[in-house]
Amino acid sequence: MRKCFKNLVFGLILLFLYAPILVLIIYSFNDSKIMGPWAGFTLKWYVMLFQDRYILQALYYTLIIAVIATTVSTVVGTVSALGIYRMRSKLKRPYLLLNNIPVLVPDIVMGITLMSLFIFIGMKMGLTTIIIAHITFCIPYVILAVLPRFNRLPENIFEAALDLGATPRQAFWKVLFPEILPGVTSGALIAFTLSIDDFVISFFTAGNGVSNLSITIYSMAKAGINPKINALSTIMFGCIMVLLVLINIRSEKGIKNIQ
Amino acid sequence: MKSFKEYIAYPYGLWMLIFIAVPLLVVIWFSFLSNPDFKAGIYTFTLENYQQFMDPVYLELLYRSFLYAVIATLICFLIAYPLGNLIVSLPGHRQNMMIVLMIIPMWVNFLLRTYAWMVLLSGSGLISQFLGLLGFRDVSLLYTQSAVILGMVYNFFPYMLLPIYTSLKKIDPDLLRAATDLGANHFQMFLKIKVPLSLPGIVSGCMMVFMPAVSTFVISNLLGGGKYMLIGNLIEQQFLTLNNWNFGSAISMVLMTIIFLVLGIARLITGKEFDTGGQLL
Predict the structure, then answer these.
(1) Does the beta carbon of A155 lie under 8 angstroms from any beta carbon of chain B?
(2) What is the ipTM of this complex?
(3) Which of A207, A232, A248, B141 is deepest in the core (most CB within 10 A)?
């Protein structure tokens, strides 16, 4: 009885979480412009999606921005985390305070402050401004993910490696880096997800020429329901599922290897 | 680790000054300038932007944003807390699976998740059709207040569940057993042991839902159809349509003040600094 009740609760919550996505997927194959009764199977929305240069362009921008922002913020964040770890506390506090601002301040405020700055200094809105904005809000998360790793290290681990005959390069890549790698990976992952998913900050820093997927979806959705978006979300959801399955298989293999 | 010097963090310090500190200061400064002068390049210090916000129209809007965010936070909590308890009672591997299942929808683009509800709630959508079968004809749930709150609950629910689950999982089951052994009934055990021990999770969950909910403009625009303006919509409108940056900056400062007040309250309750970073993964 208790078990039955438990499963019912889980079922209802999962229904609530997945129903909207499933409906999108089903309707992306429906041969009708309105979301009414089923009017037959079609792939025409997918064909139209891939003919829509505007959407493809947005997809390209989204990926470019995410890759650049993730790479830069992971490298800069990791190096800066090492610097902050070695910092005297007088300087460390303002650093961490400033670093926390993009995490705590609402997206919309981050968006308008950056937009004000860019316009104030006369920078042309476009790809560069979006990438700068994304790097700015991604680095703090990388630092928050990497810094605890440094804090957990034994004080003299790097020097111990040097004493034992490692070159500085070896000591860094063979001793220090593997220790902080989990933090770096999760930092990079957070940065990539945040960048791909971001709408608000991109919306304010994009200007007229450049638009990423979120901005495109927003402007299309504001006009009402559009089956092309259904097709797009089905593809994106499919990619996420494939990615998750791949990660799962890899980590299971990893566990087996360790065992 | 003495081989590494603090100066490798200096470039990022400069970056933070230019792209975090200066923009914030610019907006604070904007909020104290009068609008007509600003365009002419003359700067006069004024409080009129803040005075303008004291208008009942704007205060009502502020109240509405606050109300919707509080309701959404409450609903999320009322679902997530019992659910967290249920998940913790599962065997280990099923716990992980359940948590992953609850997070996957978060990986779908935020705009798409909100758009999905537009599809479900629209006049020709499934829910309206279902209501039509029950005899309620032509009910469109889209562009209503409930739709806006629903959108907030749906989008931010995992932010509530994760911290609550983490803090519940950390509770040593022996403590709960000890409490019952020492004569506490189920209700006392819950109220005096479980709730206080999971309080940090509850507080950070509430913060993580309240903050994006109070500042959103996307959900209210798409699911409310622009009929229920929130403080986020007002900021967006001032900056992008009306071009009144000074008033927009003043509203942003009001929003920031609310957020920091709430953060302060959270800090008072849990007695430590609030951290969002650790909760994300």
Answers:
(1) yes
(2) 0.86
(3) A232
